[in-house]
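We treat protein structure as text, and this decision shapes the records that our systems exchange. We quote a single record here, exactly as it is kept in our systems:
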Amino acid sequence: MATDTVRMGVIGTGGMGSGHCSWMHETPEAELTCVCDIDPEVAQEASRKFGVPAFTSATDLLRSRLVDAVIIATPHYFHPPIAIEAFKRRIHVLSEKPIAVSVKAADKMIAAAEKSGCVFGVMYQMRALGRMQLAKKIVEEGRLGEIYRTSLVVGWYRSQAYYNSGGWRATWTGEGGGVLINQAPHFLDLFAWLGGLPVRLTGNTRTRIHDIEVEDEAFALLEYANGAHGYLYASTTEVPGHEQIEICGDRGKLMLQGSTIRVWENKQPIREHSREAKEMWGSPGSDEITLDIPAGQGKHQEITRNFCRAILYGEPLIAPGAEGIWAVELINALIMAGKTGKPVELPVNRARYERLLASLQATSAGKAKVEARRETDPHYVK
């Protein structure tokens, strides 16, 4: 591109979309040039607030010639069709998480991006955290050795008022799932980014405390190609919140808990010690290592700036859109396991999941009680 600024449009200005508009000025490489929302009043309010033209149709925005790239912050089902239309017009796309509700839709989105040659990113800002960048480096360098075990626990909380705030929330037709597809994707992404995808999953989902038709709790046992195993848990029923990832290997262990990272290196590989040790009660031993954590706050702005720099200068993406399918694979596999009561192989069978999703959508009863609110999560508002 001849310019050093990317003209950005935000599609979907409720909740996170409004947040993206609010902090766009913090990204020197980006300029907010227009917004879009299907609700005319919301669109016009965003237009007045941010001083840019507003549209009520994503197609009209994409036709406007006002943008080089868009952030898609609509409900989940609309991410793929809007992205595919943008790619056809050679417009770059940064999608909010998850990139799609189903792996089949994600496949189409990724294929369209590859065909267009456009930059495709996903808003997994937690990858930009300094401790996450360090964790990825440690795993990639092989310092943990062959992975034996993984675990992910994400225990969060959401009130019934949260679920009542939108007719689309926590429904099969509006959202396509519950905690797995809304709250858990960031950690599902990190989990797969660090530990890889399993090849088989056995699990369950249930609705434990909320008046919703989708899951507020999910748990699974995982099997990996190398024989490693893992555990995954996610809920919106837990206080205080808890977030933990463990990656355990032959040469060491990595643990991410809350805002901390700890790493241990074994003095001798476990397999080697087990084979060679003469002592009955011996152990290879381990040392916790001192870590030099790089900068990186894990803000949305960091992903937006990296996305713009990828367009302008070819900078490698922190969160490539094509990698967004990893979380969708886990989401679909666990929902399928929960609904069928059977183990699920990964990659997920596309046709089988589409049939399951269609059956779940057919049972969706909608909501009797909706108290509409469009508010950005205060966790992201500083």
Q: What stands out?
A: The two ends are 33 Å apart (CA to CA). The chain has twelve helices and 15 strands.
